[in-house]
Amino acid sequence: GAGVSQSPRYKVAKRGQDVALRCDPISGHVSLFWYQQALGQGPEFLTYFQNEAQLDKSGLPSDRFFAERPEGSVSTLKIQRTQQEDSAVYLCASSLGLAGLTGELFFGEGSRLTVL
Amino acid sequence: AQSVSQHNHHVILSEAASLELGCNYSYGGTVNLFWYVQYPGQHLQLLLKYFSGDPLVKGIKGFEAEFIKSKFSFNLRKPSVQWSDTAEYFCAVNEGAGGTSYGKLTFGQGTILTVHP
């Protein structure tokens, strides 16, 4: 597609449920990021992939959060045993090369997770 | 760790008014600076960026920003706003290339701009 695609756009989960959020980056983009955006806040870094390698997961808030990008394209963010504090918009972004050099991330529209 | 501070949470202006949104960051090394914009119902998109060179950078839709290294600031400006500029604006920073940078951005908390016709 023309842009970064995320699904589902909206997800309501009961506390304790597992959820999986999908990101389909722009074709050929090497770099892929996940960000978490709480209500009224800016996006906060979760994790970074360069192709299939997860090079930085320092932003993942707990071991309940897990991300993968097994073939270097589509990525999945999984949250186990969801808690109310996990409620947020989860943004995926991709970049053609090393984004530190190209300077631009292309963001998807996000997946809004609400945990009841 | 880096942090980015945006001074105003919500700015309300009338069309044709001038705009300045403040952004300060805390990081002593080389940085790349960005402003991203999110229009209602749309995804975040790049407005402008500064890597090096002329500290006054121009972006899309008549926006510009000035990097003042001594003040750790990167304020966004527009001489005359339009109703269509209504959006949320985010300042962001990453460590400059040449270090371990791969583009990890630290964002400010955002400023909502409402422009009345």
Q: How would you describe this protein?
A:
The complex is a heterodimer of chains A (116) and B (117). Chain A is mainly beta. Chain A is built from one helix and eleven strands, in the order βββββββββαββ. Chain A has one helix spanning 99-102, and strands at 5-7, 10-13, 19-24, 31-37, 44-50, 53-56, 65-68, 75-79, 88-95, 106-107, 111-115. In chain A, strands 2, 4, 5, 6, 9, 10 and 11 form a seven-stranded mixed beta sheet that branches. In chain A, β4 (31-37) and β5 (44-50) form a beta hairpin. Chain A starts with a strand and ends with a strand. With 117 residues, chain B is mostly beta strands. Chain B contains no helices and twelve strands. In chain B, the strands form three sheets. In chain B, strands 2, 5, 6, 10, 11 and 12 form a six-stranded mixed beta sheet that branches. Chain B has a four-stranded antiparallel beta sheet with strand order 3-9-8-7, with no helix packed on it. Chain B is globular, with a radius of gyration of 14 Å. In chain B, 38% of the residues are buried. The interface between A and B is medium-sized, with 30 and 27 residues.
Provide a brief overview of the structure.
Chain A has one helix at residues 99-102; strands at 5-7, 10-13, 19-24, 31-37, 44-50, 53-56, 65-68, 75-79, 88-95, 106-107, 111-115. With 116 residues, chain A is mainly beta. Chain B has strands at residues 3-6, 10-14, 19-21, 23-26, 31-38, 45-50, 56-58, 64-68, 73-78, 87-95, 106-107, 111-116.
